[in-house]
Specification:
With about 450 residues, this protein is α+β, with helices and mostly antiparallel strands. Helix content is about 15%, strand content about 30%. The protein has three domains: about 160 residues, no CATH class; about 70 residues, no CATH class; about 140 residues, no CATH class. The chain contains six helices and 31 strands.
């Protein structure tokens, strides 16, 4: 799709048709394409592009753009005149057209819901990524539009009605590109004209526009983020086979665990999704986070286990991972094992299996890298709740009650303490009365399960 030379939105388009080749730097090498040394596209075979010292697009074809100190575009000049913009934190609140008319933009949170002029108001109805319908005050449909997954317009009943076609981006009529705040996005190429400052890629949201968006033109953001009334947010990740709590994470604005470095200052871990991924929030502004996904440790195979035992083991493994990673790994549970890195290495290197333990009543035992889980003593419990001893004085608060999952996780943490050498050895021949094992349970309880309060029997 291309725009009109007068700055109009151009035709409705008929879907993506272009084919591209790429060089070793992931830059388009079709005839007519060119890039500068910073990786910015300077020509796309139709229009040329100019950038300032801060890599902002100052000219595209015959159009020119001006910005404020926050990198937000404040004017766009083209053959038909100049449009001026009033911004707030990257959201366009109002624009002044070349004929001096004003258009206001109305939002619910950060989502555009309406555009208003002195004579008309239209309402946006969006699907997961883009505006699909525009309706008027009487409820009648003014526009029906449909886009391909990466934003190319497939159908548009009234192309000039709105410039918002794909996600929250404004589409510039002179080039057909979308203004994505920090970069220009080309829908017919499904890529940005400039590299991502974080990973040097040109793709849109990791080439996954269904589950991720990129509202700032900087990095992808998980779609399923819901703000709660108390200022916290809920981030939802749809795992293909969720096996435990942990695919839903909670975070609150501010309150970072550490200011030791740039990383600690601006990032915090939210949660570990079951099986393979962790997500981090990156604090960018006063009212929002961005989320980044990082590869995590996959729940290991439990040798000799049946499907139900493997599933229950996965639950305990992921629960322990979540506890170790709370507050970015700066918590008593991680510290018990010598820190996050040491705990992760011990988990990754361990060989887990189901089988009899040398101490008949043990939940599990560790020898070297081998962790054996007894199938008969409660690790795979189904009673709902279990009571275990965490102190040697029966008259003192020396018992706790937890769910089957909590007790299994505690026992797995107990063995991790032996793997990292941070708990007193309590295996066969070393602990004939079981007192050392009980005291180790208490140490793990205090560090990793503060919610389980001891009581006297």
């Amino acid at each position: 799709m291309t725009g009109g030379s007068d700055g109009s939105l151009g035709s409705g388009g008929s879907g993506p048709t272009a084919s591209f080749g790429f060089n070793a730097n992931n830059r388009i090498n079709n005839a007519g394409y060119a890039y500068d040394n910073a990786g910015n596209m300077t020509n796309d075979g139709v229009d040329s592009y100019v950038y300032d010292a801060e890599n902002r697009t100052t000219q595209a074809g015959t159009a020119t753009y001006a910005y404020n100190s926050e990198r937000l575009r404040v004017s766009r000049s083209y053959a038909g005149g100049t449009t001026y913009f009033v911004n707030n934190s990257g959201i366009v609140l109002c624009e002044k057209q070349p004929d001096n008319s004003l258009r206001d933009f109305i939002y619910f949170g950060s989502q555009l819901i309406a555009e208003a002029t002195s004579s008309d108001t239209v309402y946006h109805h969006k699907d997961r990524t883009s505006t699909r319908l525009l309706t008027n005050n009487s409820g009648s449909v003014n526009v029906r539009q449909q886009t391909a997954p990466f934003g190319e317009v497939m159908t548009d009943s009234s192309p000039g009605q709105t410039k918002f076609k794909f996600t929250s981006y404004e589409r510039d009529g002179e080039t057909g590109n979308d203004y994505a705040l920090n970069r220009q996005y080309s829908t017919n190429k499904a890529r940005f004209s400039q590299p991502d400052p974080y990973d040097s890629s040109y793709n849109y949201s990791g080439n996954d526009p269904v589950n991720f968006i990129d509202p700032q033109g900087l990095m992808m953001e998980l779609v399923g983020v819901r703000w709660n009334s108390d200022g916290s947010f809920t981030a939802i990740y749809a795992d293909s086979s969720p096996s435990s709590p942990g695919d839903v994470g909670f975070g609150r604005h501010g309150g970072f665990a550490s200011r030791d470095s740039l990383y600690d200052q601006y990032t915090r871990e939210l949660f570990a999704a079951p099986g393979f991924s962790r997500f981090f929030a990156v604090h960018i502004g006063d009212n929002y986070y961005w989320l980044i996904g990082f590869q995590g440790i996959q729940s290991p195979t439990l040798a000799g286990a049946d499907a139900d035992q493997q599933s229950r083991f996965n639950d305990a493994f992921n629960d322990l991972e979540k506890r170790i990673h709370a507050k970015g790994g700066k918590n008593p549970c991680a510290e018990l094992f010598g820190g996050l890195e040491k705990a992760e290495k011990a988990l990754k290197d361990s060989k887990f299996s189901v089988g009899p333990t040398k101490i008949a009543g043990a939940y599990a035992e560790t020898e070297g890298k081998n962790v054996t889980i007894n199938p008969n003593n409660g690790f795979f419990g189904t009673s709902g709740n279990q009571t275990i001893q965490v102190g040697v004085n029966p008259r003192a608060p020396s018992y706790i009650q937890g769910t089957d999952l909590e007790i299994a996780t505690l026992m797995l943490a107990h063995e991790l303490g032996h793997r990292t050498g941070k708990l007193t050895p309590d295996g066969p021949g070393r602990d004939p009365t079981g007192a050392l094992s009980i005291m180790n349970n208490g140490t793990v309880r205090q560090a990793c399960f503060p919610e389980l309060k001891p009581f006297a029997k």
